[in-house]
Each structure stands twice: as C-alpha cells, then as structure tokens.
Amino acid sequence: MELLQLMIGGLANGCIYGLVALGFVMIYKASEGVNFAQGDMMMLGAFIALGFGNTDQMGLPFGVAVLLAMVLMFGIGWGVERVVVRQIFGQPQFALVILTIALGFVFRFVAGSIWGYTPLVLETPFAGQNLRSGGIVISLADLVTIGVTLVLTLALWAFFAFTRIGLAAQAASQNQMAAYIVGVPVMRVNSLIWGLSGAVATVAGVLYATRGAIDPNIGLLGIKAFAAAVIGGLGSLPGALLGGLIIGVVEPVAGRYAPGELAKMSPYIIMLIVLVTRPGGLFSQIQMKKV
Amino acid sequence: MSLLQVEDLAIHFGGVKAVDGVSFSVEQGEVFAIIGPNGAGKSTIFNLISRVYPPTRGTIRFDGRDITGLKAHDIAGLGIARTFQNIELFDHSTVLDNLLMGRHTHRGTNFVQDILFLPKVRQEEREHRRRVEQVIELLELEAYRKKMIAGLPYGVRKVVEIGRALAIGPKLILLDEPASGLSVEETRDVAFWIEDMRRDMGLTVLMVEHDMSLVNQVSDRVLAMANGQPLALGSPAEVQAHPDVQAAYLGTGAAA
Amino acid sequence: MRVVFKTSYDRDIDLHEHGQSRAKIAVLLAIMVALPFLVGDYYLAEAANTLIWALAGMGLMVAVGHTGQVSLGHAAFLAIGAYADSALMNAGLPFLVSFPVAGLITGLFGAIIAVPAVRMSGIYLAIATLAVFVIVEEMVILLEPITGGVGGIMAPSVTILGISFDRYAALPNFYWLCLAVVAVVTWGYANLMRSPTGRSFLAVRDSEVSARALGINVTRTRALAFGLSSGVTGLAGALMGHYIGFFNYELFSIFISINLLLVVTIGGLGFIQGAFLGAILITAVPQLISILRDNLVGIGIDLSGIPGLDTMIFSLILIGFIIYEPTGLYGRWLKIRTWFEIFPLARKDMFRRQKSYLKTERMK
C-alpha cells in the first residue's frame, strides 16, 4: 500500500519531468539542438504565473494568470530564438549547448532580481484538496498534473505527426539546406518551436508550483528532466514522457529502500545504462552515415 | 594467386539487396574498374571491403587471408587504402597533416614516447615526412602543403584524398569515383597518376568510376553491375559491348 | 609577413618555427618565474589560481578542442584528483608520489568511463559525462571515511624533500610548484600535438570513418584522449585542493564544469594557448568586478546587494563570444596578428565566416 502511494506521487513528479523533457525534445526535433535552459524556462514560467496570480502581486484569477504567463513565455521563447539562438545558426551543436547554459544563468538572475531567492508559494485553486480511496491519498494537484501532461503530450505528438508546420520542423532538423530548398521557412519554424517550448515550460512550472514552493534554483530540475529525455531517445515525444515517468517512479521508491544518495543518483544511473545499451535512447533514431 | 578475391558477396539492408552474390578477383598489378548505374552497389562493395559494414554473406580474401571478420581499423595495416565518394578529409588540418595521418599504420611509438618526444619519435617523424614528400611531389601538391583543407577547392581536395591513401603505402588502393566533379584536365591528371601507381609503385588499383573515357584509358578489366548483381566481366570493350550492360544503362529497347 | 626559409624537415617538426618565437616563450617563462619578487601575496595567490585553471583547461582542451568530445562533467575529475591526492597523503605517502598517482587514478577512471561512452557522440556524450558528474558527486558524500562526506576534508600541507610548499606558509614555493607542473604539462601537450598520437586525435575529431580507414582504432584513441584529459584535470584538482586548503564536495559543483567549458571556448577551441587565455579571463573577471563594485560604492551605487551578478556577467561574456567570436580569444588574436602582418593588404571580408548549414547528427 505504501509502495502504491509512493508510486502515485512518483507518477505526478514524473509527469513534470516529462513535460520539461517534452520541451527538450521539441527543440531537438526542430533544430537538433539541446536547450539546456529548458529547466530555467520552466522556473521563469512558474514565477511569471505567480507574479500574475498571487494576491500580493497582481492578483489575477488563476486561470487567467496561467494563460497570460504562457503567452508571455511563448514570447520570451520566440524572442530568445530571434535575438540570440538565430545568431549561431549553422554552428555545431556544442555552441548551442554552451549558449543555452549561459541563457539559463541569465534567466535565473532575472528571476532572482525580481522575486528574490527565498522560496515562494503559488496560490492555486486546488491546494490542499485530497481524494481518498482505500487508504491511498491522492492530492488533486497530482491528478491535475497527470491529466494535463497526458493531454499536452498527445497534442504535441499530433502537432509533429500531422500538421504541416510540425512536419516542416522535423524536416528542417534533418537537413537545413534541403529544407530551405523545398520551401520550409526554417527560421520562422524554429522561432515558433522555441515559443511553444516556452509555453510548455510554463505549464510544467505551474504544475511544479502546485506541489511545493518555488525559488530561482528549481531550474536545476532540468538536468533530471534531461536525463528523462535521453532515456526516451531525444527525438521522441512519447519517449520523453515515458522517460520522465520512469525517473519519477524510481526516485521515491529508491529513496524509500536505499540510502538517499543512491536515490539521487538513480536517474543518472538509469540514463547511463540506457545510453550504454542503446546509445540513441529507448526510441532510437540514430543511423549509420552513408559514405 | 589473386591479390583480392571476393566470393559470393552479399549485403541486405532490411529488404533491399544492395549487393547480392558478387564474385570477382583482382590480380596483382592490375587496374580493375567497377561500373554501373547509380544504386548498383558499387560503393557498397568498397564499404564491405573496408569493413564499414559486415556482409550478410560471402567472403573477402586479401593476399590469401580471409579479412571478412576483421575490424575496420585493421584493414589499412594489411595494405588496403581507400578514398571516399564524398571526400572525407580532416577539414581543420593542413594538407601536410592530412597526409601524415595516412602514415598512422607505420608508427612505432606509443603515446608516452610521443608526449616526451623521444629521439625515436623525431626519427620516425623525419621518415614519415620523407615518404609524404614523395606523395606531394607525385601529385604536385607542393603549393598546398600548409593550407587548411577547409579552404581548398574541390579538385585539390580530391587529389589530397588520393595522396592520403597513397601515404599509407598500400598494396591495393580503392578509388571511389576519382574523377567525379573534376574538370577534363584534372581527370587526365588522375589517369596519369593511376598509370604511375601501377607502373612505378607496383600498386593494384580497384576503382569505381562513371567516366567511361577514364575507365577505357586505364583499366585492364571491368566489372559491370546493376541492382546489386554482376552483369559482365572482361576488357572495357567487351563489357561495353555486352547486351545486358547496354540494357542496364540505356533500357531494354536500346539493346535490341 | 615573415618568410621562414626551411632547410630541413626538422624545422617543421620542432616546437617553434623560428628562434624569435622560442625567445618569446623563454622571456614569458622568465617573467613567470620571477613573479614572486614582483608582486604581493594577494596577486601571487591569484596567479597560482590562474595557473591551476589553465592546467584544468588544458585537460579539458584535449577532449573538447582536440578530440571533439564535449564533457560537462570535468568537475568530477577535479574532485577525484583532489580527494585521491589528499587521501594518499593522509595515508602517509609523500606529495611527490601522491600527486602523480592521483593524476594516474583520475586518468584511469576517465579512460574506463570513456570506453562505453565512445559509442555515443556529440550531445549524448556530453549528457553521459553530466551523469557521471552527478554520480561522482554523490559518491563523494557516500564515501565519508575517505572524503569527509558533507563536512569536507583538510588538504595536507605539501612538503618536498623537507622544504615546505604550503600554500599559506610558503606561497612563493607553492606558486613555483604550480608553475613547474603547468610548464611540464604544456610541454608534453605541445609534444603530443606534433606527434602521431596528436594527429590521431584530430583525425577522430574530424572524420571517424576515414580515421578508421587509415587504421586508427577510434575507440582506443578516444579513450586515450579522454584518459589523458581527465588525468591532467585530476592533477589540477589535486593542486586546487591544496590551494583551497579545506574543501568538500561543493567546491566541485556543476558550475566548475561550466566554468571550465568557458575557459576552453572563450580561450579558443583547439589551441593550447586558448586554455591560458581563458584561465586568465576567468580569474581576472571576478577581480575586475569587485574593483568596479568598490569604485561604484564611492560614487553612491551599491551593487553588493545583487547576488549572482558575477555569474550573470560571465554568462553575457560567454554568449557574446559564442555569437561574435566562436574561435575565442586566441582566434581573435590570430586574426589581429595576420591583419598587421600583411598590412595594408587585409581585405574587409577576409575573415568572414562561411555560411554553414546544420546537418543531422543522427547519422553516424
């Protein structure tokens, strides 16, 4: 019974990892780059929602605040691509890794300057409400998290699989020049994807904030979410969610039955095992280069 | 005995039979060309010989030794050098360094000796350089010695790649479309060099080529392929006159 | 523009193309040796710190700059070097033994983890090293008897043949120690890069498939490069431990890994000189910021209330470099030098970057 309880909490946690991982995967799908600032975008999104919604700040209704935050973060993601990321168009992946790590620090500094470094709590309509069934307590926040994540993953998957823009984005990642030639507006698609990933990060941030206090350093969760994305195989949206869920569930279970340090290591150990046995992740897309 | 013997070689990628039951042998000192339309499996044969892919079936013997199970990095040491269809040079190194990299199989020092740069390392470096200079002289690359690959024109890169293969000091050299993308003059140079390789250096040459004038000029024997299967084997004239070959290139109507 | 007339292959094999550049290095080294007599303790300690960072930077440069293996986890190797050295000294070994052994242990560890990691490339390798970093960090906490756990450990005082090289009691000696280590490693590194081993590193970086066709064992070469890289970083870690004196796992945070990456990218990827320029920048900028801060207080602006300003400024510098000068400080210097050498023949578009398009890395 205790195990089941742990696993439900873990699933909800895993959903948040999965959502941040979705952000990684989207950008990877579109430009084959990795946005190491994804975790910090999640953090910033949560703070912006808090700024709009909390009574001591602007005091807007929760739904409106979240929506506004998503719009604003879409703009920020879009703007970051336009102003910064686009400048290194065509440079090797490594440049983008370092660039986004640096961007993450900037986001953290911005959030720290505006909201300070002491943990704050986002006011949500479902705080402290629990459902009970047969000795298991499920908080409403957990349920919302799981539900929203499933819907969002499905929507994004459909976006990449069926819409013109989604397909164009994938084409652009495989060969930018070829995509240009067949008429894909590579730059505009990239901006759009960065914007979208900003909005998804906001959702992840808000869901994270429903489960505890936030401070500018929660973006470090991005590293764990990144492990999730890798476990799934960087190019796969369902894979990212699955990776997130695996990590989310293993972590508390390992924490219960093994020393705490081992629990902290567990996501990375799983990731290493996956990388060594299947270098491209569970849903691998790596192929031999033709010579 | 033949220098290179390929027997019943096949590789299947999923359902695609890229090479399907090809056999041929290349004699010591001969220039052997493989021709065929795009997708015939010519480059795939090169990739099988240089062990980029493991074959689905068949054996490759070099100098009497079965090399089918060897690793890709063991091939150069036996004396088989190759070039690539889409030039694979080390872009951020100079021409000289690229050629010196070709001397890798001849190194006799380990990394500790290299770090200390013992006299033995210097001795070997001089020898490597001497050998590389011979290649530079043959291919007339003197002007490009200290130039970065990244800034060189296509034709020169193509030559540097041949030079790098020669620097290995091979017995057999595999040239993957040596004339593609070259001007008429450059192609003529390539023909001369292939002659030099055979006559002066005693090399055996196996090449894939589309340029029939080059093939006619230099090759002793030609293997024509289509759809992964051998069509005809013989002298350039024989092969070109073969009805199956004409059908493969021009369509069945033309052969009649 | 200088024209060097070469009369033997040795001129190309030698470390320096002509006598003047050899003389320049000699003068630089002489100034470095004389530094304790020229500056006070504060700046001498900073110089030692810069040397340690340059050493670690060279370590990372072997992997990132010369073999194309991006590592986000080199702080782990600093940690292993520091803890191994301290543990060995606490076990009674003299520094002269413990120091190289610490480097060796770190190098072996790096080479061992590189073997499975070799199958990965690009971004995946970077991620794997990040994972290794987190695991090492947690292991440090778990292995309390050796590492002092969360509490930390005191680095023993360094004595060689009865002479103290303690960082506080005998700072000039400690500085010279660092300088000697850096000089020897730099010499070895430069040797490596003109030898077959160094060329095989570059070959693996630029084209794996043709490296194999030349008979280069890619797996072994990458593992060797990563081992050497982590070994040198381990040496830097050992010195860093002695420099800091008392340390725990927090000294070797992920930020150190990122700072190290900053050293090699800002310095100039693929150039040994880049590691030094990067190290100078990364140790000088905090100094400049604090000087600036003090001066601003004088005119009524107080920046001390803003935490994280240093990191912020670092990040902006980094972003600026990646966008406007991806070849780093050393690349910029080369351009400036060329401009003067061929003056007044430099054209405006001479150094323009070629437009490039990203190709998928899913094909390997």
From TrEMBL, chain A:
One GO biological process term: amino acid transport
Protein topology in the membrane: Multi-pass membrane protein
Keywords from the UniProt entry: Amino-acid transport, Cell membrane, Membrane, Transmembrane, Transmembrane helix, Transport
Gene Ontology CC: plasma membrane
Source organism of the structure: Pseudooceanicola batsensis (strain ATCC BAA-863 / DSM 15984 / KCTC 12145 / HTCC2597) (Oceanicola batsensis)
Family: Belongs to the binding-protein-dependent transport system permease family. LivHM subfamily.
The keyword Membrane is annotated on this UniProt entry: yes
Record-linked CDD domains: TM_PBP1_LivH_like
Molecular function per GO: transmembrane transporter activity
Annotated protein name in UniProt: Branched-chain amino acid ABC transporter, permease protein
Pfam families associated with the record: BPD_transp_2
Cross-referenced InterPro entries: ABC_transp_permease, BCAA_transport_permease
Bilayer-crossing regions: 6-27, 34-52, 58-80, 92-116, 136-160, 192-214, 226-248
Compartmental location: Cell membrane
Automatic annotation (TrEMBL), chain B:
GO CC term, one of those recorded: plasma membrane
Origin superkingdom: Bacteria
InterPro entries xrefs: AAA+_ATPase, ABC_AA/LPS_Transport, ABC_transporter-like_ATP-bd, BCA_ABC_TP_C, P-loop_NTPase
Gene3D superfamilies: P-loop containing nucleotide triphosphate hydrolases
Record-given protein name: ABC transporter ATP-binding protein
SMART domains: AAA
Segments forming domain ABC transporter: 4-252
Organism: Pseudooceanicola batsensis (strain ATCC BAA-863 / DSM 15984 / KCTC 12145 / HTCC2597) (Oceanicola batsensis)
Family matches, as Pfam families: ABC_tran, BCA_ABC_TP_C
Keywords, in A-Z order: ATP-binding, Nucleotide-binding, Transport
GO molecular function (one): ATP hydrolysis activity
From TrEMBL, chain C:
Keyword line: Cell membrane, Membrane, Transmembrane, Transmembrane helix
Record carries keyword Transmembrane helix: yes
GO molecular-function terms, A-Z: branched-chain amino acid transmembrane transporter activity
GO cellular component: plasma membrane
Chief location: membrane
Coiled coil regions in record: none
Residue spans crossing the bilayer: 25-45, 51-83, 95-117, 123-143, 150-168, 174-192, 223-245, 251-284, 296-324
Subcellular location: Cell membrane
Its membrane topology: Multi-pass membrane protein
PANTHER family documented for this protein: HIGH-AFFINITY BRANCHED-CHAIN AMINO ACID TRANSPORT SYSTEM PERMEASE, HIGH-AFFINITY BRANCHED-CHAIN AMINO ACID TRANSPORT SYSTEM PERMEASE PROTEIN LIVM
Protein name (database record): Branched-chain amino acid ABC transporter, permease protein
Organism: Pseudooceanicola batsensis (strain ATCC BAA-863 / DSM 15984 / KCTC 12145 / HTCC2597) (Oceanicola batsensis)
